[in-house]
Amino acid sequence: MSNPFLEFLRPHKTVPHTPWTAQARWDLNPSRVGILFFGLTIFGLGDGLIIQSSIGNGPWSVLAQGISDQLSITMGWSTFAISTLVLLLWIPLREKPGFGTISNIVIIAGAIQIGVTIFPEQNNYAIGVIYCLLGIAMVGFGSALYITCGLGPGPRDGLMTALHHRSGVRIGRVRLGIEGFVLAAGWLLGGTVGLGTLLFALFIGQSIAISLGVVSRLTPK
């Protein structure tokens, strides 16, 4: 006999179609935009929790933190600048942004800055692990919400898929190469690498898959 709770948390293999899924990247309505903004905010706050855990960040936050420290700017501005530069790389790759792409840049950067402001930085390692795991769950759920809106990928995801289509290299290898380069650059600039980095790498994919499953099962058919 299956466990209803475990069944509810069963990961989804694909991106489900929902009542708020757009037909095009600029197909906007109030409810769809509201869900998009909510998902991106949850994503950014989750990233803020991971940063404040002090046990290691995801690769892109390692880079943002390194740049933030080197230029003496906030994490929010650093994240915004990185996302904007990544978006510019779409031009030679002929990738087209959507409303969700632009919203991703602005809202996640702002939510990260709010997160690192309101969540106290942890010196207790055990609480730092809790921060990190909760943050990964929030990033996963936020990702599921904004992805199912269908209003365009974030700058990093768009770069990954564009490089995959243009080069013919497997998408997993493209993502691994991008994440590895970003992590190394961030570490050299002074970003925090540690257990949190490993936890993020191990669990973020599963967190997104579980969240997509939850969204699909909560959505009226």
UniProtKB/TrEMBL annotation:
The keyword rRNA processing appears for this protein: no
Name of the protein: Uncharacterized protein
Pfam hit, one: DUF6198
Lineage top rank: taxon: Bacteria
Organism: Actinobacteria bacterium BACL15 MAG-120619-bin91
Chain segments annotated as transmembrane: 33-51, 71-91, 98-119, 125-151
Keywords from the UniProt entry: Membrane, Transmembrane, Transmembrane helix
